[in-house]
Write a structure and sequence with these properties.
The chain is of the alpha/beta class. It has nine helices and twelve strands. The longest helix is centred in the N-terminal third of the chain and has 20 residues. The N and C termini lie far apart (59 Å).
Length: 269
């Protein structure tokens, strides 16, 4: 009987170990090129390439073989809520700026990319020459600001409203790309978008006339992946990325999607 019990125990442990080694890793991603977007039958982009390197690291270093399941979102708020409320082994890829005030709701990984935010106006708008109230009122005084709620971009617009334009009206848009589309169509709109979104948009829409209001550029933030509270993937990813950010493959990923110049200025050290 003891030998039978021992065999059963060994089998049980083997099943448990197999289950842990082959857990499903849920990747919730916001469709937001060049970070992550569906191309053909599978997602592609900067964040997806980094996650694929992370998966390879888990297989080779940690000897685990998680099964990836990608779930796409087009709405930033639904994406955020899906990760926040997930009970699964979940990582969120959404070009999310690391924000301490959100740490009560979600976990952030270490930063994988610098975040530079550009203040954009229609190309026919006057240039803001300095970050002063007279200059900002002269250009933006009769305009409406476009923003994406629950983002750092929204914080920057609200800072302008609080400090310079208390009567400023805000309109919520679903994405930075939509903000740029609207600004290109209407001289009375402005808003913040991240630098990569702007670079990608101008590259793919060379006839759209939009410009950067340089005195209002923001350079203080970084992007991280998000996870539900208590998810053990945070520790694993941080261990992986400490070495990976020094690896040539990291810089090759950025160069592939952003070009040499943008890849260099956006890479974390």
């Amino acid at each position: 009987m003891k030998s039978v019990a021992a065999i059963i125990f060994v089998c049980f442990c083997s099943i448990c170990c197999f289950s842990q080694a082959n857990d499903t890793l849920y990747i919730h991603y916001l469709d937001h090129p060049p970070f992550a977007t569906l191309e053909g039958s599978s997602p592609k982009g900067i964040e997806v390439d980094i996650i694929n390197e992370y998966l390879l690291w888990q297989k080779t270093v940690k000897k685990t073989n998680p099964i990836l399941k990608y779930i796409a979102f087009t709405d930033p708020e639904l994406f955020y809520a899906s990760v926040k409320n997930s009970s699964h082994n979940t990582i969120g890829l959404g070009a999310v700026t690391i924000a301490p005030e959100k740490s009560k709701e979600i976990e952030f990984t270490t930063s994988y990319l610098k975040n530079v935010a550009f203040c954009i106006s229609n190309g026919n708008a006057t240039d803001i020459k300095a970050k002063t109230q007279p200059e900002i009122i002269k250009t933006f005084g009769s305009m409406t600001a476009l923003t994406v709620t629950n983002t750092t971009l929204n914080k920057y617009v609200n800072e302008i409203k609080k400090s310079y334009l208390p009567e400023l009206k805000l309109i919520a848009e679903p994405s930075g790309t939509k903000i740029l589309d609207e600004i290109a169509r209407n001289i009375l709109y402005f808003g913040y978008v991240d630098a990569i979104t702007f670079w990608f948009y101008v590259k793919n829409n060379p006839t759209k006339f939009v410009k950067i209001q340089k005195p209002l550029i923001q350079t203080k933030e970084e992007f991280g992946f998000i996870l539900p509270k208590g998810c053990n993937q945070k520790i694993l990813f941080n261990e992986f990325f400490t070495a990976f950010k020094k690896n040539k493959n990291y810089h090759l990923i950025l160069e592939k999607h952003l070009g040499s110049y943008m890849g260099q200025i956006m890479a974390v050290n």
